[in-house]
Amino acid sequence: MALEHAILVSLLEQPGSGYELARRFERSIGRFWTATHQQIYRVLRRMEADGWLVAEEIGQDGRPDKRSFSVADDGRAALIAWLRAPVQPEAVRHELAVKIRGAAFTDDAGRAALIGEVERYRAEHESLLFTYMNGEKRDFPDLEHLDVGERLQHVVLRGGIAYERMLLDWLDDVLDTLRAL
Q1: Helices 37-49 and 3-13, packing angle to 10 deg
Q2: How far apart are the C-alpha atoms of 46 and 43, rounded to whole Å?
Q3: 15 and 68 in contact (C-beta within 8 Å)?
Q4: Residue-wise pLDDT tens digits, 82-95
Q5: In what residue span(s) does the Transcription regulator PadR N-terminal domain sit (predicted)?
Q6: Minimal CA–CA distance to 79: which of 2, 156, 157?
Q7: CA gap 135, 91 in Å, rounded
Q8: Dihedral of the alpha carbons of 153, 156, 161, 167, in degrees to the nearest 10
Q9: Which of 20, 60, 112, 133 has the fewest other C-beta atoms within 10 Å?
């Protein structure tokens, strides 16, 4: 997936400025596709030049005008073509998993250091799970009355929650194994 596709989805959900889009990435889309503010602005300019986006100048009192982006017909067509294309399984690169396998070739001090790293990694993912679950409560308080877009957003968020839970279970297993060595 290219950043362009994530931007198209976000702008179809709700048009907005580059700043607003970057904030959405930090709050929701960034759970599954990360991008810096600079990357987002650079891609927005390219997408506008390619005719995928239309920008509207919006005046603001006491502040510089902002540009609000929406998806043009060519952008929607590009997204539809991408949505119809097959998805290849992603190659997984998991540095921590390689380190865990490598623990067989170190001493007790090396394994102790690895335990500390797994504990730190686990704490980060536990925090991320907490963030996802709080976001679910905040963004989806009424699960009975979600529209199509909200239902699809929610199922992706549930996938993120399930992934984090699975990862935490695996990390607990890793810690148990390392501590038993």
Answers
A1: 80
A2: 5
A3: yes
A4: 999 998 888 778 99
A5: 7-79
A6: 2
A7: 28
A8: -160
A9: 60
Contacts of 181 (CB under 8 A, 6+ apart): 103, 111
Backbone φ and ψ for 171, nearest 5 degrees, come out as -65, -35
* Amino acid at residue number 156: V
Q: Which region, left, alpha or beta, applies to residue 51 given φ > 0 means left and ψ of -120 to 50 means alpha? A: left
**131-143: pLDDT as tens digits:** 999 999 999 999 9
Tell me, what's the pLDDT at 31? 65
Amino acid identity of residue 122, one-letter, is R
- Cβ(12)–Cβ(89) below 8 Å: no
Tell me which residue of 39, 22, 32 sits closest to 128, measured CA to CA.
32
* SS3 assignment for the chain: CCHHHHHHHHHHHCCEEHHHHHHHHHHCHHHCCCCCHHHHHHHHHHHHHCCCEEEEEEEECCEEEEEEEEECHHHHHHHHHHHHCCCCCCCCCCHHHHHHHHHHHCCHHHHHHHHHHHHHHHHHHHHHHHHHHHHHHHHCCCHHHCCHHHHHHHHHHHHHHHHHHHHHHHHHHHHHHHHHC
